[in-house]
Design brief:
- This protein is an alpha/beta fold and 351 residues long.
- The protein has a single domain, classed as Glycosidases (TIM Barrel), CATH 3.20.20.
- The protein is 40% helix and 15% strand.
- The radius of gyration is 19 Å and the shape is globular.
- The model has no long low-confidence stretch (mean pLDDT 96).
């Protein structure tokens, strides 16, 4: 039987599930969890919104806020580019579906720290096989922790967990997945920090369900793939008042209210804008895409907002090399640095 989960190598994400019957069947199976999501949102969202201007960070963050996503499949040229940018915080994707090649991911990551110390976050990408088989997850998470514990103690557990194309059909499934990983950490790897829940876009109701539940879990740091309304500036609003600043304020309010957090640190582990004229590499339709000048300006504005909030510890730009949304275009074997590449370099240099 062919898997409904198919990877799109152009946009570095799964295709939308085309098997509608399978998708409908799985959502029906998890209908009770959607009810729990609705109830938790009804109670928590008004309180968190009312208090979002009240909560202040325990200590100002953002002194070294700049981070960058790098990918094994984009090659070793990234090492030189990262050195040119001067960025010290890197996020490396590690798909559970490719666990047989874990040594390649480790060797690739080590190349960035040969000459200079870097802060590494390993982003563990889920797949349906490991969601269904928690014994397999226990085995492979142990392998990952044993392999990477020498160079990092920070692991993001899951990615875009509110998108069914990434494998989860409910937040309840994610919580079981996370609990399995946490149990392995607690038993054998006490120094490791687990980061979650990695909800993508401004879909706060999924974050609420992940932060307010009956599961025996704790997040060491909170991760969010906090994208802006794709059609424009980070100063644009959704739902009337939620520009990027207030989205951060709401996220921080939820963190402070949640009994599931061990710290008040937030990592934004994915954000970008899609670029005009780059199909099929752009992750959206042309309608949502922006020009290279807009992209660079919006990126600088986004970092400025996040830094001034004092509530964000790291923002990992997604990603270094990607023709449809990254800082560098590598089509036709050429390395073309966009305007945003040089703007990012300037931000890092200026601190």
């Amino acid at each position: 039987m062919q898997t409904p989960f198919i990877w799109d190598s152009y946009s570095d994400q799964p295709h939308v599930i085309r098997d509608r019957a399978y998708k409908k069947q799985m959502k029906k199976k998890h209908s009770l969890d959607y009810l729990k999501l609705a109830l938790s949102t009804a109670f928590v969202f008004p309180v968190a919104t009312a208090l979002m201007k009240v909560f202040r960070p325990s200590m100002s963050k953002g002194n070294d806020i700049y981070g960058m996503g790098v990918n094994l499949d984009k090659g070793d040229v990234q090492v030189e580019l990262i050195e040119e940018l001067g960025v010290k915080n890197l996020l490396v994707r590690l798909p559970l579906s490719d666990i047989q090649n874990i040594q390649r991911y480790y060797d690739f990551t080590c190349k960035f720290i040969q000459n200079d110390k870097k802060n590494i976050v390993v982003n563990i990408l889920q797949d349906r096989e490991h969601i269904d088989d928690l014994q397999l997850l226990q085995k492979d998470i142990t392998v990952i922790f044993n392999t990477f514990k020498i160079i990092t103690n920070e692991f993001q557990i899951g990615n875009a967990i509110n998108r069914t194309k990434w494998g989860f059909f409910s937040i309840g499934e994610y919580l079981k997945f996370y609990k399995c990983v946490q149990d392995i950490r607690d038993e054998n790897f006490k120094d490791i920090k687990l980061i979650g829940p990695s909800v993508i876009d401004f879909e706060y109701y999924y974050t609420i369900r992940a932060l307010f539940n009956g599961y025996d879990i704790k997040y060491d740091k909170l991760s969010s793939l906090l994208y802006v309304d794709r059609r424009g500036s980070p100063y644009n609003t959704q739902m009337g008042i939620f520009d990027t600043k207030n989205k951060i304020n709401l996220l921080y309010s939820l963190l402070r209210l949640s009994p599931k957090m061990r710290s008040d640190e937030i990592y934004i582990t994915e954000v970008n804008w899609p670029l005009k004229g780059t199909a099929p590499y752009a992750p959206t339709s042309e309608k949502e895409c922006v020009g290279y000048d807009e992209y660079a300006r919006y990126m600088v504005e986004y970092y400025d907002i996040a830094k001034k909030s004092g509530k964000i510890s790291k923002v990992f730009w997604h990603q270094l090399i990607a023709p449809g949304y990254g800082l560098v275009d590598n089509r036709d074997g050429k390395i073309i640095k966009t305007k945003a590449f040089y703007e990012f370099k300037k931000m890092v240099q200026n601190g």
